[in-house]
Amino acid sequence: MAIARMKKVYIMGHQSIRGELLEGLQEAELVHIANLREKIEPDVLDEAEIADQEELGSLHLKLSKVGFVLDQLGRFYIEKKGFLSSLIKEKVVVSLEDLKKVEEKLNFEQVYAECEALENEFARVLSNLRHLEEQRKSLVPWLGLDLKIEDIRDTRETGIITGKLPVSNFKKFASDIESELSYTCFNTVSEDGRNKCLFIIYHREEEGALASILGRHGFQEVTFPGLKDTPEIEYRKIQKETGALEKRRDEIREQIQGKASYREGLLVFHDYLQSLVLRKEVGKKFATTDQVFLIEGWVKEKNMAAASELVSEASDTIDISYSDPAPDEEPPVILENNRWIEPFEVITEVYGAPHPKELDPTPYTAPFFLVAFGLALGDVGYGLVLSLLSWLLLKKIPLGKMGQKFLRLLIYGGVAAVVAGVLTGGWFAIPSESLPPVLKNLRLFDPLSSDGLITFLLLSFGFGLLQLFLGVFLEMVDNFRRGKVLDGLIDQGSVLMFLPGAALMVIWMFWSGNNGGTPLWAKVGLVLIITASLLTVFFRNRQSKSLLGRVGGGLYSLYQMSSFLGDTVSYARLMALGIATTMIGWAFNILGGMIMAVPVVGIIIGSLLLVFLHAISLMINLIGAVVHPLRLQYVEFFTKFFEGGGEGFRPFSIFTKNVILRSKGG
């Protein structure tokens, strides 16, 4: 249960076998390739890299085409999934051999050409439909005009204008026409409440005066480009053409949906192309000449033999050598824990990789996160449902390693919630008085009673104090490992005395203050506090050369110890979350019970409602049971000893965003 031991590896070979070697390294996923190029900064590219750049252009073009087709399928095809599959993004399980042959089996260029043609036609159909819809809307106000549009044209002596006029301006417009023009007349074709559609005929002698009147009253001319028949006939033509285009649109949509069978192959092909891109781009990290390449990287100590065997299989002319990390080097970090602790690596990995020379926090945070999760969710029913659902997802849905770890973590969390629920009497938030005697007898305390509430709060504080104590102790151990014995004894030792001493004094003040006298354990607590305070004041700032500076810095450090009080109080959220789970479920039970009181129908509806409401309650409380214990680990626990800042071990490997590689025996 620690950080894996690393060896630096150097691989040197001829450029002619570089491609074969990289393919083997990528499939084996053993070597974390470092950027040796940064150290030597070559001025020119070798011939192999120039060829790689040309191939990269071709690969990126194919990737853009794959992305286009997948995006198209995503817009037109809604995959029907089962309940479990809909909860988590599913990956495609494929063998390495099938991954390599996917392009040949897929016949991608033909698929792309067909999809591109359909996309272009679909875009044209939509464009035409939009244009027809605009024409249709423009014709609606003119359906009452019983005149062919092609006949609406000027003659030598007369002109015709069609357009819209605001209703509010119509009376003044009509008055001006009547008073100022003698050879102009108009007809109202339609009115929609805001505008009147007018058909105006005028003598050319009055064209200028008419234009002035139209301008004054906000007249907007309307034309019908490309149309010939009467508005009503043209309207029917548009409806007919629209129907034909809509039919073709639906046919294209069905044709695209019919290509959904290619989706899995396209996802696999996408990852295959990305793997080839990685293979070409990794060459930018090598030191090279026209004839030779040199790879610098890292490999787990236990995988040295496998790496050597892989290289020898590629060619017996390749040289591989290993060395220990230099004292000032920081090798990449990968966590190695047993199968029971492994799921908790998610907590550490989300926070960040440890420094290569510090402790792996995973085994130390595991029991505390588990207990915190259990107390926060704290219900037998919810715990059982969570564990069962997570187990089913783990068994039924292909997932990557991170997803598998998280689901296993939820299974553990569900078990912890069951234990906490038994001890606190949480059974789907059923009131304690309604529980069978056998279940009541299993309960240690009732968190909803006044005494139980205090017990729950003190339990949370004690739990928090214990974890904080461990965090400081781990920092002391880390200092010992690095040879900083004095730092560990004074800086962390003083805190390790202060915390239990303060706890003993608090207990004495609340429970023994009225009994007369001072018990021995309270005196021990006082001695611990005094000793820790003296160590802190006089030796915590020991780097200072002056006594005043040492004492001043020590007093400030002593003041900072009060932050542990706030850190401990933070653990009260576990009590709040546990009670919230019970109260929310209790409210839902009351609501469901009221409906179930109605005979027959009420029982059915109430039962279904209870299932739905408790599912909502589980989701709400699950978020809190994950987020808040994580916060306690990151903000309260990790800050006491965990530095982080390490680089994660990322071996050169197959790109697996959409796929899971099936092992040869699987």
Automatic annotation (TrEMBL):
GO terms for cellular component: proton-transporting V-type ATPase, V0 domain; vacuolar proton-transporting V-type ATPase complex. It is found in: Membrane. The keyword Transmembrane helix applies. The keyword Transmembrane applies. The chain crosses the membrane at residues 368-394, 406-430, 453-474, 495-514, 520-539, 571-591, 597-623. It is a multi-pass membrane protein. One of its GO terms (molecular function) is ATPase binding. InterPro entries: V-ATPase_116kDa_su (IPR002490). Residues 101-135 form a coiled coil. GO terms for biological process: vacuolar acidification. Its main location: membrane. Keywords: Coiled coil, Ion transport, Membrane, Transmembrane, Transmembrane helix, Transport. Signal peptide: none annotated. Belongs to the V-ATPase 116 kDa subunit family. This is V/A-type H+/Na+-transporting ATPase subunit I. It comes from Candidatus Hakubella thermalkaliphila. The lineage of its organism: Bacteria, Bacillati, Actinomycetota, Actinomycetota incertae sedis, Candidatus Hakubellales.
